[in-house]
Amino acid sequence: MRSFRQFAIALVLTLCPTLATAQSVNVYAAASLTDVLQDLAQRFKTSGQGEMTIVPGSSSALAKQIENGAPVDVFLSANMEWMTHLDSLSLIEKDSCAELLGNTLVVIAPAAEGFAVEARKGFHFAGAFKGRLAIADPGHVPAGIYAKQAFEWLGWWVPIQDRLAPAADVRAALAYVERGECAAGVVYATDVVRSAKVKVLATLPEESHKSIVYPVAIVKGHRTDKTAQVLAFLQSPEAAQVFEQYGFAVLKKKTPPAE
């Protein structure tokens, strides 16, 4: 009998960490949201509402993980395309989807360096500096896709193509410039808010690329009271103030992905 009790106690103790972890809501989010979501997760926990586990990465890589069955509760993408892709596979709770945030693109350089940039058609961007341009991979990462659209609109894309330094996500592109490995980079305006190692040279025109929109949704089969609570918190006035402190535009627009 004693052996059975000892076994039962040991089993409970073994399972406790798993049970505690299970109480946390897994939020997979675009890399550019890393800092603000870590801040919000701490506020969520401190207020006694529960725990959020933030898993940052490129929206494309995170979407692929969701496709492959990763234990994701809530997904925040840096563009609507990847959310629409998941919806086409019936992998999100469509009625939970909302356009949460907006952003802008900027050209940056190391803080101690830099060069003049005029964000207009006709400006010879490639000739304005020497070295490489850090950019999130334009083949699948939203920040890189937006950047390519802007550069094509401005007429800058073809001359600079052979000097690109593609990065896994926008934070990796920022790091290339912070470390001085690249002479310039294109990132979101929010990425540089808390970096003293880079400076903004120019803001790319909003009309030069698709609108930068961050949609949020609950992943299919993960609608619970906890995930609904997290979703409501992310759309709350309190969260809106924090998002704005980090430089994001708060949209709060309920928009399911297009059919």
Which secondary structure elements does this structure contain, and how are they paired or packed?
Blueprint: H1 2-22, E1 25-30, H2 34-46, E2 52-57, H3 59-67, E3 74-76, H4 80-88, E4 98-102, E5 105-110, E6 133-136, H5 142-154, H6 157-160, E7 164-167, H7 170-178, E8 184-188, E9 198-203, E10 213-218, H8 225-234, H9 237-245, E11 249-253
Parallel strand pairs: 1-2, 1-3, 6-7, 6-8
Antiparallel strand pairs: 3-10, 4-10, 4-11, 5-8, 5-9
Give an overview of the whole structure:
With 259 residues, the protein is an alpha/beta fold. It starts with a helix and ends in a 6-residue tail after the last strand. It has two domains: 2-102 and 212-253, D-Maltodextrin-Binding Protein, domain 2, CATH 3.40.190.10; 105-208, D-Maltodextrin-Binding Protein, domain 2 (3-Layer(aba) Sandwich), CATH 3.40.190.10. The protein is globular. The strands form two sheets. It has a six-stranded mixed β-sheet. Helix 3 (59-67) packs parallel to helix 4. Helices cover 37% and strands 22% of the residues. The model is unreliable at 1-21 (pLDDT under 50). It contains nine helices and eleven strands.
